[in-house]
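Section 3.1: Structural characterization of target chains.
Under the original work plan, the team committed to producing a structural model for every single-chain target entering the pipeline before any wet-lab resources were allocated. The record below documents one such target. The sequence was received from the expression subgroup and is listed exactly as submitted; it comprises 164 residues.
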Amino acid sequence: MSEQDTTTPKEVTETGATPADVADKLGEGGKRALTAEREARKAAEDAAKALQAELDQIKQAQMSDLEKAQAQARSYEKAATKASAEALRWRIAARHGISDEDAETFLTGTDEESLVKQAERLAALAVKAPTTPRPDRTQGGTGDPPALNSDALEGALRSKLGIA
């Protein structure tokens, strides 16, 4: 079995030399400077990554606050719409003389036009079906009752008792 090179290929500069060849040409001081520069670059890249991660966290935190604010605005808008529809329902119910119980049960529309149609229909049904019977004027007494010391009371008693 043949051995394969599993190491990564070395960088090649513009002149065709590897970084190790360049470091050899620089001497001991150049090697130290090159190593220090590489370490500084690595530290700077690590710092940049950390700062980028922190910036992403800040953006995410701000985005969540923005999303929270948007959700809260949507809930307030929904509550305002509901309150407006409820006020419209009660205003139409009052205009057509509909009781609170009937308004809760029968006025279910969401816009003014449908609520008005429902209220008019409910008011028309209420007129057709009276809740109490109409008084019969032919029954009962006619006029004022006689005084206790009057001759009319004595006459009424005699006629009821059959005494002449």
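Residues 148 and 154 are 9 Å apart (CA to CA).
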